[in-house]
Amino acid sequence: MNISAKLAMFSIAAILVYLGLAILGLGGFAAFFSHPALVVIALATLVMAGLSLFTEANLSSGEREDRANRWVLPVFGVIGLLSAFIPAYTDRMDFWTFGGEGIRWVGAVLFMAGGALRIWPVFVLGKRFSGLVAIQPGHTLVTDGIYRTLRNPSYLGLLVNALGWALAFRSNVGIVLTALLLPALIARINAEEALLHSQFGAEYEAYCAKTWRLIPGIY
After folding, report:
1. pTM, two decimal places
2. 19-65 pLDDT, tens digit each
3. Is 190 contained in some domain?
4. What's the CA dihedral at 113, 88, 183, 149 to 10 degrees?
5. Cross-referenced InterPro entries, in alphabetical order (predicted)?
6. Following DSSP, what letter does each residue of 11-70 receive, concatenated?
7. b/e for 187-202, b at 16 or more Cβ within 10 A?
8. pLDDT tens digits, residue range 195-207?
9. Residue 65 falls within a domain, yes or no?
10. Which of 70, 110, 130, 194 could form a disulfide with 164 if both were Cys (CB 3.0 to 4.6 A apart)?
11. The domain that contains 181 carries what CATH number?
């Protein structure tokens, strides 16, 4: 099994653990699947797990890597595990929650939209997409499609996806956990953009001058 396949299998296992923790937090299968919006989220999660099998995502250090940025990976992991369980648990306990089924549906829509935005760039980048901050062999800039406007669409997808998850459980704690992703995410973006600038120089500067970093019209 090659590295990409191993990473895909790991991603599927992580997604299933994530979903399992949410089911546990909400009190079991019956409680979780009694909410139609959460059923939709579960199905969307399984679809994303299946799609990950067809990507070329990897964990290659490539030709050059910014190893100093690896600290963000365990941070993402810890926040991810907390986000899997705590919003569902606070929903069950009705602790610091808000809204009703309508909010759950808003969350479901955002979760799916964020998931699509998260995985779409993985297909676009192919072997250039690494879980590490690295320049891959034959690395070239992608400046068309969604990258014509946004330099980091997958990270925007991650934030929208996480916010949707929090809203699906009506969880203020989940929103706080989503906000806690920002420092590590911005550090990751800074590291990636610095590495790309060192690799592509004026070409990357020109690209940055006509695109948004994360949120169109804002940042």
Report:
1. 0.95
2. 999 999 999 999 999 999 999 999 999 998 888 888 888 889 999 99
3. yes
4. 0
5. ICMT_MeTrfase, Metal_cation-efflux_comp
6. HHHHHHHHHHHHHHHHTSHHHHTTSHHHHHHHHHHHHHHHHHTT---B----SEE-GGGG
7. ebbebbbebbeeebee
8. 999 999 999 999 9
9. yes
10. 110
11. 1.20.120.1630
